[in-house]
From TrEMBL:
The chain crosses the membrane at residues 53-78, 98-121, 142-166, 197-219. This is STEA4 Metalloreductase. Signal peptide: none annotated. One of its GO terms (molecular function) is cupric reductase (NADH) activity. One of its GO terms (biological process) is copper ion import. Keywords: Membrane, Transmembrane, Transmembrane helix. InterPro entries: Fe3_Rdtase_TM_dom (IPR013130), STEAP_metalloreductase (IPR051267). It comes from Circaetus pectoralis. It is a multi-pass membrane protein. One of its GO terms (cellular component) is plasma membrane.
Length: 234
């Protein structure tokens, strides 16, 4: 993309035609007042990532302290139980899927709001409010951050069986059954629920990765609109 601005429409159109002839994409940034902003673009560091990162950090801090108070502080104060080790695996593994789903919802929410605004105005040729315009421009970054949290959730879930706390709980349950001379029968209902939960999680993560891959410019440029929409809708 090549950003173009100017007060002379004919001269600006001529420059945009030259840009197209070079095989590039001209982007009209408006009047000459935008020149300083365009010149500062090379000096900016990930300008479109600022809002997604700050939002994800704020949500992470909120849910972390909520889970910390609920799972660590409350049992320690009222039950005198030390679950501080939950900070390493359990709490992050609970935060990551929540943030992945929230950020994924925030990717599609501005599109819905934009459609409502267009229906209310009765036209699609008026500019969106600045807050909605900036929100829509950083949807791809929000989706990639959501994919990162989903990937972390997968990694945290894979290490659950080797945790000392999980192995201790399983061994305690086995010893309890042996001392009581009682074996719990297989509950097929719970087995179906557990396997279905894991299968849907794997399928959901696969679709999440597929959605992230098709959002890459090098991939999206090689698919037509119908193929891209098919993946997005799924």
């Amino acid at each position: 993309q090549v950003f173009v601005c100017g007060d002379d429409m004919e001269a600006k159109q001529m420059v945009m035609d030259i840009v197209r002839a070079l095989g590039l994409t001209p982007v009209d940034q408006g009047s000459l007042l935008a020149a300083q902003e365009i010149e500062n673009y090379p000096l900016q560091l990930f300008p479109m990532w600022k809002f997604p990162i700050l939002l994800s950090l704020g949500l992470t801090a909120f849910f972390f302290f909520y889970c910390l108070a609920r799972d660590v502080i409350y049992p320690y104060v009222y039950e005198n139980k030390d679950f501080s080790f939950f900070i390493a695996i359990s709490i992050p593994n609970r935060i990551c899927p929540i943030l992945a789903l929230i950020l994924l919802a925030l990717v599609y929410l501005p599109g819905v709001l934009a459609a409502i605004i267009q229906l209310y105005r009765g036209t699609k040729y008026r500019r969106f409010p600045d807050w909605l315009d900036k929100w829509m421009l950083c949807r791809k970054q929000l989706g990639l951050v959501a994919l990162a949290f989903a990937s972390l959730h997968v990694l945290y879930t894979l290490v659950i069986p080797i945790r000392f706390f999980v192995r201790w709980r399983i061994s305690s349950r086995i010893i309890s059954q042996a001392l009581n001379n009682k074996t719990e029968p297989l509950n097929t209902t719970n087995a179906w629920l557990s396997d279905s939960y894991l299968a849907l999680g794997i399928l959901g993560f696969f679709l999440f990765v597929l959605l992230g891959i098709t959002s890459l410019p090098s991939v999206s440029n090689n698919v037509n609109w119908r193929e891209f929409r098919f993946v997005q809708v799924r």
